[in-house]
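Hello again, I could really use a second opinion on something today. My current little project is about how a certain protein chain folds up. You're getting the sequence in one-letter code plus the fold written as C-alpha cells. Here's the protein in full, and shout if anything looks odd to you:
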Amino acid sequence: MAVGKSRGSQLGEYRGDKFVGRTGTAEDAKKASEARTALYRRRAKIRLPMLQKIDPDGSLSLRSIAERLNQMNVPTISGKGSWSASSVRRLKAVS
C-alpha cells in the first residue's frame, strides 16, 4: 500500500471528507439533477419579489433589470457571477 500511496493511487473511498469512490449510476444522476432543480427553484422564489420592485409594470428590458440587480448587489441564483439578460429571463420563467 505504501508503494501505491507514493505513486498517488487512491486508497479508500474518501479524500478530505469527500466521497471519491465509485462512479455514479443513472439513478444517482437523476436524483442529483432533481435536487439541483429544487434548490434553484427555492432560491429563485426568494428573488422574485425583487423583479416586482425593479420593474412593476414589466416595461424594462431584461438587460436593464440585470443591470439594476447588479447595482443593488442582489446575488444571483447560484451566488456566483453577475446578473445577465439570460439569467433574468430564467428567473422570470420560474414565476
About this structure: Residues 48-95 form one domain. The two ends are 55 Å apart (CA to CA).
